[in-house]
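INFO worker-7 received task bundle
INFO bundle size: 2
INFO processing item 0
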Amino acid sequence: MKKRIVGYRKRIDSLLAQNTDCDWKQVLEEHLTQVAFFQHERLIHLIVTVTFAILAMLSACFLLLTQEIALGLLTLMLLVLLIPYIAHYYTLENEVQRMYEQYDKIWANLHHGHPHLHEQ
């Protein structure tokens, strides 16, 4: 997913940098579709990340109360899994935020540099 979202964002950055005369309405429609896909992915990963964080904290609390070795291993595994989930969510969040900025630029190109015409 990281490769896909970064690749898409870079493709749009390149299109915006070229400032070519293209069908900005079609680009905007496609961009909104892609943003919706990535927002959904971001929401799912937020839910998974928060769930793993809660499970890790609960496991750590029970470990402190019981001092069971099995709970220590479970806590360690959950924490190890939590790190890549946080990193992936961080990527999704930042890329979607950049895509919002791209949306504004595409909108401006569609309306010939008049971003104040934007109504949402």
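INFO item 0 finished
INFO processing item 1
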Amino acid sequence: MGDVLLMAQPWIKAFHILAVISWMAAMLYLPRLFVNHAGLEVGSQASELLKGMEVRLYRLIMNPAMLAALAAGVVLAVLGGQAVWGSLWFWGKVLFLGVLLGFHGYCTRWLKAFSRDENQHSARFYRFMNEVPTLAMIVIVVLVVVRPF
């Protein structure tokens, strides 16, 4: 089984990258929808339209992409063995992965608040929060590609 996984490693890596791109796209787009939604009147046609868009993005892209990225990432980390687990860059990546997972959790909370018409945040708040996954992604890419330590 281990030989099969080693032979499949480039495919697993490609799948991981595609899943991460999908997850990031959703985490960058969902707060942008929140920016637009925050300024709308509760119950308006536009508000209801955005609710549907937000839920579909979250359920059909964001969650499945996150799960796929995590699954492929764990397999790659296991295949990498001590060379990965003993590297400081890897643990930095894990730390910023935690930031992304936390942000995903907050998106879940905000999505539920919008669906109940109980949003408490301004468009400016969501505009600011939209930068969190971008910054985490930049750090992760630098850690994985450059491996500064």
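INFO item 1 finished
INFO post-check item 1: The longest helix spans residues 2-38.
INFO post-check item 1: Residues 2-146 form one domain.
INFO worker-7 idle
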